[in-house]
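Work Package 3 (structural annotation) set out to generate three-dimensional models for the target panel prioritized at the project kickoff. During this period the team completed the workflow that converts sequence records into discrete structure tokens, so that structures can be stored uniformly alongside our sequence database. As a representative example, we reproduce one entry of 334 residues exactly as it appears in the project archive.
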Amino acid sequence: MGMPLRQSLRIGAHILRNRIRGRDRFPLLLELEPLFACNLACAGCGKIQHPADVLKRRMPVEEAVAAVRECGAPMVSIAGGEPLMHPQIGELVEELVRMRRYVFLCTNALLIPKKIDLFRPSPYFAWAVHIDGLRDRHDASVCKDGVFDQAVAAVRECRRRGFRVTTNTTFFNTDTPRTVIEVLDYLNDELGVDQMMISPGYAYEKAPDQDHFLGVRETRELFRKAFAGGNRKRWRLNHSPLFLDFLEGKVDFPCTAWAIPSYSLFGWQRPCYLMADGYARTYRELLEDTDWDSYGRGRDPRCANCMAHCGYEPTAVFTTLSSVKQSLRALRSA
């Protein structure tokens, strides 16, 4: 199952309008990072390794909204850090929903019980809760005991209140097809979340743990085996069919990181939220002054093992909409 039909149609219309206007590069989703601070210190995360003065900063709501308007992306993923630590996070989400942007609030869920009353259920809003495995695996990933149980309790409360809940699960070379199946079965069947996003871990340059990121061959083997036996069709995965093909190694794509730009406290980040090769002052400057052809597997050695959604999911979406067969396939999975 891919994204909801109404959202899929909105994205399709957005792509068509930009193509008609002759634009070769335009955004599908904005990665918005209004802060870098977090209440956890995960071993695989490179976002909290900034100096203390940077971790204290919070992006003003007006600046965040201006970035969304500037690039024109129909979807916004609010990340960090932990976005619920931002004192105006409710105001920010409310404004983006009012603008009819599809908003995904990425969170470890620890602060949901304290902040949930700041939000209202809407077809334009979804929690994106990080669940990186079942209890022991998840707690080890976030380097703190008890987090899995708190996250599960928060998901259940969000669903009870009528919110749309998605999850985001990152897999590493310590995972096996069995651990992938176990956590996705749990999220899909027992916890009953609306949709799930999956991603092979990317080797953040500043991440404390550099030993457990997946290579391309490992990623393909892991997902090919986990998807076997009809699991892929049964799970409510928030990805296009072609991106799932990509994870299995059935197809390969070039990187189109420009379609998921990242805006943070430092500005527009080149080339994506996983790498930092400088910052642009404006979205136009990001598009026009970045050598996009120098990034991606086979072009930049830092990209050699990257199969992250921020670079390759947009390519899968563009490829889908350029083919009647693949478009019908995607609609059937919606």
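The two ends are 5 Å apart (CA to CA).
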